[in-house]
Amino acid sequence: MSELDELGLPTTETIRALQNRVSIRKYTDEPVTDQQVEAILRAAFRAPTSSNIQSYSVVAVRDKDILAKLAPVTGGQKHVAEAPVFLAFCADMTRIELAMANSGENIDDNNFEMGLVTSVDAALVGMSASLAAESLGIKGVMIGAIRNNAAATAEILGLPHRVYCVFGMVLGWPAEAPEQKPRMPYEAMVHFEQFGQHKDGMTMEDGLKQYDQQLAAHYRGQGRTTNDDSWSAELVKKFAPQPREKLRSEAAGQGFDFR
Predict the structure, then answer these.
(1) Within its chain, how far is the Cα of 196 from the centroid?
(2) 244 in a domain, yes or no?
(3) Domain presence at residue 242
């Protein structure tokens, strides 16, 4: 019985797919066909887009030489090098720039809002693609580490000015069934009417303490060593010192000035 069933909440095939989602990093030899990728992306391109600007592009990569170059950028993730197919979801202002140039305008003074909107567009399409793939039984993992070196990624993928890769996604037929990682308590994530008003009187501190304990139990159940405050300790390691300190300048080099 699922969590939603236990709570007496409505469910659908789509809701169940999201409830059961896990990141997959090992794949069978069965190929993901061009037709399957096209079906996934055509569906994903119906995702919401700000003011219908559709400011994204996707680079589908199967070439092993290109994948071998992308893997080091992502910290040597083996599943990137061996990906049945790798999808690079990019924020793309080239079509906007062309349309404005045709009207005698330009986007040289593009600001934080334009960069944010295009990045959100790419993210909405990426998650939609992930869900579409799940509906076919194809699974994968998001690759945020593609931003470890945005300039190198742009060079490897041949991205022009006004395009940068927001994140990647490996897709394939799963060869593993990992245990689902727990998430933060629902009661700590949802606020009612105003920020800070949680269900059942839970506080942010309560939710964080509960999740630290749950994640520690999950990792230890896998035989992994972790702190009692597992999530909090991981976060400190990831964000102190600041990661990807060159990302802003690298994005600016691609024409995205996040000011």
Answers:
(1) 27
(2) no
(3) no
